[in-house]
Amino acid sequence: MSTLPTTAKPSARETAFTPFQLMLLSLMVVQNCAVVLLGRYSQAGVAAEDKFSVKTLVALTEAMKLFACVTLIGIDNIRELNPSRSDSYLPDMPLYRLITLMPSAVGTEISKILANPKNSMAVSPPAALYLFQNNILYLALENLSAPVFQVCYQSKLVTTAIVSVLLLNRKYEKIQWISLVLLGIGVSVVVLGEQDNSEGDGGPKDQNLTVGLIAVGLASLSSAFAGVYFEKVVKGKNSGSNGKPTSLWVRNVELAFFSLVFSFVFGIFSEMFATNSAGDLKSEVPAKPILHGFTATTYALIFLQAGGGLLVAAIVKYIDNVVKGLATGVAVVVSTTFSCLFLGTEVKYQFALGGITILASVWAFSNHEKVAKILRDR
């Protein structure tokens, strides 16, 4: 089965990234900024009774991702069975014929997945971790401003690098480890500055800095383990029932399926033990509609999150799970600028100092060979 166009790793004489990789990283910047800004906007200043259910949003996101991946699998199978001379991704055939062939093309691949359940179970651990991460991120956005959230979330670069060494035996240069240490210092500067600001002016009444920072820390850890584990599965030697390596889209179908299963189970248990504001079980409280609190912003978040999941999978496959930190680093600057312009966020000097340190660390980590050359030439 065909997948995304393969891109060879650049040699030392070539540019750092190929055009295809640059496109993926650029899309990652846009997606990161949009999700954080819209996520913060959807949580800030909204009464608790009017907020949407994060569990429902995450479940709908996974359902959309599942539908998109199943469609891509069907298109890939049709292209394989009906070779086309055109360079278009869609098969060279009328749309009605493509739609007619889609059920059988998808059914063929689904039957292969069901014939090898052990291979599919490999993605269940990262599915559970991604589900936890996606749920807790909104708790962080509820209690932190968009810039502070973005900056503190860069700590996942450190945890991802450490987990990559443990699970993938990846080697990093001395300059890269120094960059990670400086990144940690930068995050500490931002956090300490934000604590001083909160203690000085009391901070927004609807925000809890401690809860927000704990949520970011847990999201960083779950993101690191899930991302590296998924990278190991995608780039590993696991095969489908036909002996060929399992495609990227099949892995995403499996990931979305397990996420939906875990989301359903989590939703059942959370409703069983949920309480109202008085601390009583909510068994006697009328249930809200499943899409209560959903607005155009919420649906945009679902679309962006679903597309972002596919984008991360492509970056893991064709670039590097840690190098994508370069894109998120750029996203910090862009989202901070937009947050100041449209959300009224104030940027203090501690934040600026820590943010510059973090961005410089991310750049040095991703361009360690260039940094080493500059130091040698001095």
UniProtKB/TrEMBL annotation:
Keywords per UniProt: Membrane, Transmembrane, Transmembrane helix
Keyword Transmembrane: yes
Membrane topology: Multi-pass membrane protein
Gene Ontology cellular component annotations, sorted alphabetically: Golgi membrane
Subcellular location: Membrane
Molecular functions per Gene Ontology: pyrimidine nucleotide-sugar transmembrane transporter activity
Pfam families from the UniProt entry: Nuc_sug_transp
Main location per the UniProt record: membrane
Transmembrane residue ranges: 20-40, 175-193, 213-234, 255-274, 294-316, 323-344, 350-366
NCBIfam families on file: nst
Protein's recorded name: UDP-galactose transporter
Organism of origin: Triparma strigata
